Amino acid sequence: MPGFTATAWLCIVALYLPILVLIVFSFNENRSVVLWTGFSLDWYAKALENDGIRHAAWVSVKIALFATVISTIAATMAALATTRTKKFAGQGLVYGIINQPLMIPEIVTAIATLSLFALVKKITGLTGIGYLMLAHAAFCIPFAYMPIRARLETMTLTLEQAAADLYAPPLKVFTLVTLPLLGPGIVAGAMLAFVVSLDDVIITLMIAGPGETTLPIYILGAIRRGVTPEINAVSTILVAVSVLLVMLLFVVQRRMQR
Amino acid sequence: MKTVLRLLATASAVAFASSAAMAAGELNIYNWGNYTSPEMIKKFEEKFDVKVNLDGYDSNEAMLAKVKAGDTGYDIVVPGDYMVKVMIGEGLLEEVKPNTMENFKNVDPKWVDVWWDPGRNYSVPYQWGTTSFTVDTAVYDGDIDTLALLFDPPEVLQGRINMLNDMNDVINAGLRYLGYGRCNGNQDELREVLALLSKAKPHWRTMDYAVIEKLTSKDVDISQSWNGAAMRARAQRPTLKYAYPKEGFTGWMDNVAVLKGAPNLENAKLFINFMMEPENAGLTSNFARYANGILGSDKFMEPEMLSAPEIVMPAGAPEPDFVTPCPQEVVDLYNKIWTQLKQ
Amino acid sequence: MSDREAQTALAAAIAQNRRNERLTRAWLLAPALTLILAISILPLAITVVYSFLTPGTYGGVTWEFSTDSYVQFLFQRDIFDDSLVFNSAYVSIFLRSIGLALGATLGALILGFPTAYFIATKPREQRNIWLFLITLPFWTNLLIRTYAMLLIIRDEGLINIMLMKAGIISSPLTILYTDTAVFIGLIYSFLPFMVLPIYASLEKLDFSLVEAGYDLYANRLKVLFHVIVPLAKPGIVAGCILVFIPGLGAYITPELLGGGKKLMIGNMIAMQFGASRNWPFGSAAALILMALVILVLLANALAARKGASRNG
After folding, report:
1. A241 assigned to some structural domain
2. CA distance linking residue C88 with residue C179, whole number of Å
3. ipTM of this model?
4. Per-residue pLDDT averaged across A12-29, rounded?
5. What CATH number did the domain enclosing C96 receive?
6. Chain B (274-293) residues lying within 8 Å, Cβ to Cβ, of chain A
7. Could you tell me which chains touch chain A, where touching means 3 or more CB pairs under 8 A?
8. Inter-axis angle of helices B60-69 and B81-89, to 10 degrees?
9. Res. B10: pLDDT tops 50
10. What's the pLDDT score for residue B18?
11. Domain-embedded: residue C154
12. Is residue A78 part of a domain?
């Protein structure tokens, strides 16, 4: 399609331009994220020494991973239920419920969830990071669900039916036929869920307990006192590590295919 | 599937248990973000063999909402002046009687009989400062000590102004400029304030909390600002000058207090006493860049802090105005003004 | 086995099958629904209750029934005089937010569709890498990312410098702190939410068919609108929902890039839980927003049903 490739490249360049700026400023010698004065590695040293920031980054990744796994599994199952079984009464309602976390501004959900969790804590006496993880998993579901469902809707049933006609048990049909076909949808959904969880501020701020500060919360608190390139350094490290991991994965995958 | 479920069960059990296990020898502090000296915390941890968990919030109200919901697990909070009064009124703070503690003698007498905690039965000073504005004197070289620069700006400053994105700070400044009282329910006076703000708004470039970034990137030449932020901005733009407007400006103090039902009450009391030690208050000031209200702490403060014009008020400047919490009717009116202004 | 017996057996098998299907469905839906019911719908119920109460002093609620919050949305009582007059402030805030969200959705679609198509035409083993490349920028923090954007679109920013060096413009464009900046920011933040669902629905497209289509019709636009877009429709709908709805409530990016001089729905509501100390009104405004979103979704579903029945 003419123009499509150009548009795609434009998007990719536009997406990376701010990231480039962000990385450049992580090497700023000055304590500003908007005024460049000179090169230094100080902020990397500071970030690595800063317990608070390291802990926050680790909590963020931990919660995002948990939320991604849970929400992607739940969303895949729900997407199968809403597209792979016959139409049923209440399908619209189910669809509405799954998308509900999108519909209310976060602060409202956050305040209401806070009241609810306080009640649960009082009754059960349980505390800990589990609350935060579950809350993240819940609001990640619609983001994981939508791409998976879109994928399922465009997949024809022929292959699955053919397999079923050959008396393959449903589970086998699922793992050997449906799941591989569904793969791209699941990957897309999981990636969105991960990003959404990693960047959440408001719900996390309200629900997090002692020692559960995530990176966005850490940064939010820093606004009034000035954000320093330390945050850029941490972001750069996070990006670099993930690029390395994915490259590694890619290489391994290629090896295995050969 | 079963294995997946079992895995999940184990994972969630671990997640819940890992923090349920913490008990003795801990202290959970909930303070404004990036406001606590890591050096001071390390010192406390080593001295009392206590592990400190430190988390940050971004507004008094967010902290209040959480604390009110209950069972936060925190021991120490650092509410602003009016919030101390609110929290005492709501029964959210533990009466730990700092005034009977060993280090109370170090508290500047000026900060003992404060309206938010008379006699200091609940809280001790943490940091205090002022909210005024800071101007680039290379851009505007006239008299800066007047709020007219924000509300009736000279031509060079028009379109170069940042206001704090804060309902109370903006409306209070407007009230001062017009010479009216704070926590004002007088509708005629408020109508004038709305007219003043609406007339001035086209001259404002932005309304944002990120004062330091706005000033250092030269997006604006004048900004409403806290004194500590003004000092940090000056480090990168030396021609900035912090104003002490003759119409008055806001003063504020953040205070260390213990939450009712604190899980580590004894450690929290140790921390309150610890914070009144001059050296620790000095460490805090060096980090957070504000004054602290503990006598003798200047010996431990960086020299540039002691001479900074943002910290040391010039003779003849008006007394900072510590604004009391306003009744709901007034807040509702303020809210309407704010919505009209920003619709 | 008589015919009748066979029929009964068949009926029983079908019934069994249906029952099984219902069971499977319930089992498949259980995790997602349980999580959302517990962590999102239950709080929603709390929100409904809050919206009919009276604001507590210093935040929170008092248990006193009141519909003031809903009245307050359209009318103002007691500001400057005691009569009820129509208040356009909240409505205009809502309208502006809706306009921005719609614009962002359209912009993200125009940029996102070609991008998704581009990825879908890449060799299979490369596609996940491309997806990863699209989402990677969002692994960094929103705030820092927005500061970086600020530097790019400022008067003395990268874009203006490049355009001026290239001789396209002679004086810098003022983008920062305008609605244009807000649009750019929103499109930027939501682009992956458009690209990924569209990609997911396009991925299985047989592009040799598309090529054949080109040869036959020789009209690429026709192929696009008659072959590709209908195929990608579920993805487009999903993408639009994932951009439009969060776009309505977004406020951090719009505030930073737009200069914060105008309220968005998102921070108008957030304010009610902060300095304005009016939880019931914040709850009511959020519910009104949700009702609006549901209306949009319903209209969309109805349109889809009509379209479907017309086609088949």
Report:
1. no
2. 20
3. 0.85
4. 91
5. 1.10.3720.10
6. 288-289
7. B, C
8. 20
9. no
10. 41
11. yes
12. yes
pLDDT in tens, C194-252: 999 999 888 877 777 777 766 665 577 777 887 788 888 889 998 998 999 888 888 88
Domain of C156, in residue numbers: 87-272
H-only helix segments in chain B: 2-20, 38-48, 60-69, 81-89, 148-151, 167-178, 187-200, 211-216, 227-236, 265-275, 278-288, 303-307, 328-342
3-state secondary structure of A144: helix
Question: Minimal CA–CA distance to C195: which of C279, C276, C273, C137?
Answer: C137
- Contact flag B56-A35 (C-beta cutoff 8 Å): no
Work out how many domains chain C is built from and give that number.
1
Tokens of B186: 């007088």
Residue B94 in contact with residue B259, Cβ under 8 Å? yes
Checking if the pLDDT of C266 tops 60, the result is: yes
Domain count, chain A: 1
Determine whether B97 is exposed, middle or buried from the number of CB atoms within 10 Å of its CB (0-12, 13-18, 19+).
middle
Query: Sorting pLDDT into bands at 50, 70 and 90, what band is B12?
Result: very low
pLDDT at A68: 96
Between CA B15 and CA A127 the distance in angstroms is 9
Q: Whole-angstrom Cα distance, residue B187 to residue B195?
A: 12
Burial call A205-224: b when 16+ CB within 10 Å, e when fewer: bbbbbbbbbbbbbbbbbbbb
Residue ranges and CATH numbers for the domains of chain B are 24-128+252-307 (3.40.190.10), 130-249+313-342 (3.40.190.10)
The lowest-confidence range among A119-123, C148-152, C210-214 is C210-214
From A207's Cα to the closest Cα of chain B, the distance in A is: 8
Q: What CATH number should be reported for the domain holding residue A199?
A: 1.10.3720.10
In a domain, A190, yes or no: yes
Q: How many CB atoms lie within 10 A of CB C71?
A: 14
On whether residue A26 sits in a domain, the answer given is no
Sign of CA dihedral B181, B182, B183, B187: positive
- Which pair of tokens denotes residue B50? 């206590």
Gap between the Cα atoms of B167 and C260, Å rounded: 12
3-state secondary structure (DSSP) of residue B240: strand
Contacts of B336 in chain C (CB under 8 A): 76, 79, 89
Residues of chain B positioned with their CB less than 8 A from the CB of A206 = 62, 65-66
Give the span between the Cα atoms of C104 and C101, in whole angstroms: 5
- Give the number of other CB atoms < 10 A from CB of residue A3: 10
Q: Which of C144, C237, C188, C132 is nearest to A192 (CA)?
A: C132
Asked, for residue C254, whether it belongs to a domain, the answer is yes
Quote helix, strand, coil % in chain B, to nearest 5. 45, 20, 35
Closest by Cα among C197, C203, C226, C196 to C214: C226
Task: Name which of B168, B207, B339 is nearest C259 (Cβ-Cβ).
Answer: B207
Inter-chain touch B217–A35, beta carbons under 8 Å: yes
Provide φ and ψ at C257, rounded to 5°. -85, -30
What residues have CB less than 8 Å from C129, skipping those under 6 apart?
A246, A250
Chain C residues touching A248 at Cβ < 8 A:
none
Range of the domain at A141: 50-227
Q: Which of B106-110, B229-233, B330-334, C122-126 has the lowest mean pLDDT?
A: C122-126
Q: Is B127 helix (H, G, I), strand (E, B) or coil?
A: strand
Closest C-alpha to C258, from C104, C136, C90: C104
**Contact between B38 and A50 using a beta-carbon 8 Å cutoff:** yes
Matching residue, tokens 């504020």: B252
Question: According to the model, what pLDDT value does residue C216 have?
Answer: 66
Return the structure tokens found at A16. 């990376």
Close Cβ partners of C207 (under 8 Å, ≥ 6 residues apart): C120, C121
User: For residue A181, which residues of chain C lie inside 8 Å, CB to CB?
Assistant: 204
**Which residues, other chains included, contact A221 with Cβ-Cβ below 8 Å and sequence gap of 6+?**
B32, B33, B34, B35, B56, B57, B58
